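Dear colleagues,

For the upcoming journal club I promised to circulate an example of a predicted protein-ligand complex. I picked one with coenzyme A because it came up in last month's discussion. The inputs are reproduced below in full, followed by the predicted structure.
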Amino acid sequence: MSERNNSGLAGVVVGQSAIASVESSGNGLSYRGYDILELAEQANFEEIAYLLIHGRLPTEVELRDYQSDLMRHRNLPEALKTVLEQLPPETQPMDVLRTGCSALGCLEPESDQRTVTSIADRLLASFASMLLYWHHFHVNGQRIETMSDETSVAGHFLSLLKQETPDELTRRAMDVSLILYAEHELNASTFAARVVASTLSDTYSAMTAAIGALRGPLHGGANEAAMDMIARYATVEDAERGMHEALSNKQLIMGFGHRVYKQGDPRSPIIKAWSNKLAVATNKTRLFEVSERIEQVMMREKGLFPNLDFYSASTYHSCGIPTAFFTPLFVIARCTGWAAHIIEQRENNKLIRPLAEYTGPTPRSYIPIERRH
Ligand code: COA
């Protein structure tokens, strides 16, 4: 590990996985062999969740049963509601989910009857309930009903957030974004989940660790940071000027570049098309135009392309999602991929415990405290 190139495990293959295939040339991403382009066009998110967790696409009946199951699991135990009410109103929403996940692990612990798949379903169904129960309690003083008639995870999130039935275009935009965010091989949060699973710890602990990893701006937090940046510019000219200034100050531009893809993120054109569609539909095109100009400057000046997080920002904004909920949405989608990896890790487990090259002091004698100055 002494090579600078190997820092951050870049390019290091640490195991095998049959869940997602990521083409470093930027040509593609597939979930269990199905191309992401086809899935984003034709599938719904629950089909993808089922595919990832159960290893195959559901039949029509299985999908209906799965959606009904998820709908039934949207309730929150009273003790969890109390925990959410006790959190400060200014808590970071990712911390709300991390705490909610951990608290549910105390209230409904893993057991022979409550397995990784049922815990994954429970978390997938109730993450939106946790976040939005906490949100409405602290912002509006309301204890909302966390069940809804919406059959999809996307629809459930939107209906709890807005307390009204979402329109079809917004619901589908969200659904597609959840498909795109569902799985991505050994990204940092998934690797964190697998490290925890490899110690034979429980599913909640692995998921909690993954949420912690996803929270950072170099990973899932990039979509929120990208939104903050885009929102700063009133016009494309402002954006052009601002980007030149940021780049000359050697700033990292959130939502650009990728550890694996070096020629383009195959998910980006899909979410960009949705960002454009929503901008046109809502007749609010500024954010999309500013985003496109930022994309052009980044390509021209740095040869860097947008990753999924960049156009997710304007897409979610057009869907009426508060910026602080962008990364929590990523959690809701990615908990399916995390679950698939926890299952795969357990199937052929080996403790993940790499080595470090020691660079500290050479051996020396201990100095008793009274002789230390
Ligand atoms: N803005 C500005 N410069 C960037 C950049 C960005 N978003 N991403 C990479 N670069 C530059 C690096 O500074 C580096 O330049 P240098 O060779 O002059 O030092 C070069 O491009 C190579 O980048 P590197 O840091 O080696 O890539 P990485 O594989 O370690 O990092 C990311 C990948 C994703 C962490 C990095 O691109 C990044 O921080 N992007 C912004 C955060 C983000 O969008 N995260 C979501 C990822 S899906």
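Two points we might discuss: The mean pLDDT is 96. The chain has 16 helices and three strands.

See you all on Thursday,
B. R.
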